[in-house]
Write a structure and sequence with these properties.
Length: 363
């Protein structure tokens, strides 16, 4: 079996580092907002290139709290991509705003050229999604938000360590990250973080994650949430952060090998110059996608579809309406192939061989 991802292999590689880190938390008896959380927040902020990092309970909460902190109120509009995962839009809705969808481009990211016509007097923010680990057009997005006096909240939940030019994503606006176990930087449960250079926003987000409280416990200054990064997860993340760049390098090497083996067989991921794609997912586009998926599954290879339904085609968001032809077409042909740092060369060759076999059988 060649899995889509394999966290057990990763664990075996860092067991001697991560087990003492977890044990130290257990021995300390401090499990909520302790030293590991505060030190991880400092380390991750430094890694991303911002002054602040606020640990929260999930990537979805990161987005929702960030939107609340920038002042999103009921009835405000927030623009995002039609091909993202539903948690992006759930966060917008749960923050009280109305999602406004924009189609994706050929790089699976929000089509920046279509954003301008969707901006209204009610637009409060834009939430670009660095989907699959490739950064969006950040220069163009910054120009748009500056021109229209909007806020920029980056959904970087799949882009830990991805960069645009010389800057890591998550440092252009308010950055939102997920530490779900399968992410490039993942803990052993749910977790998330928000990054920002804005001192006032950082204080607001710390309050929002902790019942709206600031200095005095049991005294809420605003309506908040219970959304804290657990101490034991922070300890794990501190260990993993030290390996993140090398793990991302391995993903990029794997992607290059896939490109070499699958070029001309299926449509391999497109990349833009000046960006560091860190391949949270390696997504190809193939005709007869579902048949291909079943064929390689029968040969012991795991795959995924990220995502089978654009936002406006899901029951929860049908009321949003709209036509997004690129997102709809992609949903029927995208296929995620096995991708994780510990993937072996012979496994990549086996995956490519089975994809090639199926393709040639149906030419």
């Amino acid at each position: 079996m060649i899995p889509l991802f394999d966290l057990k292999r990763q664990y075996k590689g860092i067991r001697n580092e991560v087990e003492p880190a977890m044990n130290s938390v257990m021995e300390s008896g401090c499990f909520i907002l302790g030293e590991n959380v505060s030190v991880f927040e400092e380390e991750f902020a430094r890694y991303i290139g911002t002054r602040h990092c606020i640990g929260v309970a999930s990537g979805t909460d990161a987005l929702m709290i960030a939107l609340r902190a920038i002042g999103v109120e009921r009835g405000d509009e927030v623009i995002t991509a039609a091909n993202t995962a539903s948690p992006t839009v759930m966060a917008i809705v749960n923050a009280g705003a109305v999602p406004v969808l924009v189609d994706c481009d050929r790089y699976f990211n929000i089509n920046v050229s279509q954003i301008g016509k969707m901006i209204t007097k009610r637009t409060k923010a834009i939430v670009p999604v660095h989907l699959y680990g490739q950064p969006c057009d950040m220069r163009e997005l910054q120009e748009i938000v500056e021109k229209h006096a909007l806020s920029l909240v980056e959904d970087a939940c799949q882009a830990h360590g991805a960069s645009y030019g010389s800057r890591n994503v998550g440092s252009f606006g308010v950055g939102c990250f997920s530490f779900y176990p399968s992410k490039n930087l993942g803990c052993y449960g749910d977790g998330g973080a928000i990054t920002t250079d804005d001192d006032e926003l950082a204080e607001k987000m710390k309050m929002l994650r902790f019942y709206g409280q600031k200095a005095a416990v049991y005294h809420s200054l605003t309506e908040g949430y219970n959304s804290r990064l657990d101490e034991i997860h922070a300890a794990v993340l501190r260990v993993k952060l030290r390996h993140l760049d090398s793990w991302n390098d391995e993903r990029r090497k794997h992607a290059k090998r896939y490109d070499e083996l699958l070029g001309g067989i299926v449509e391999t991921p497109l990349r833009k110059e000046g960006r560091k794609h860190i391949y949270h997912l390696y997504v190809v586009m193939a005709e007869r996608r579902d048949e291909l998926r079943e064929y390689i599954k029968s040969n012991g290879i795991g795959t995924g579809v990220h995502y089978p339904y654009p936002i406006h085609r899901q029951e929860a968001f049908r009321s949003l309406g709209g036509s997004f032809p690129v997102s709809e077409a992609d949903a029927s042909s995208i296929l995620s192939l096995p991708m994780f740092p510990e993937l072996r060369g012979e496994e990549i060759e086996e995956v490519a061989s089975r994809v090639t076999e199926f393709t040639k059988m149906h030419q």
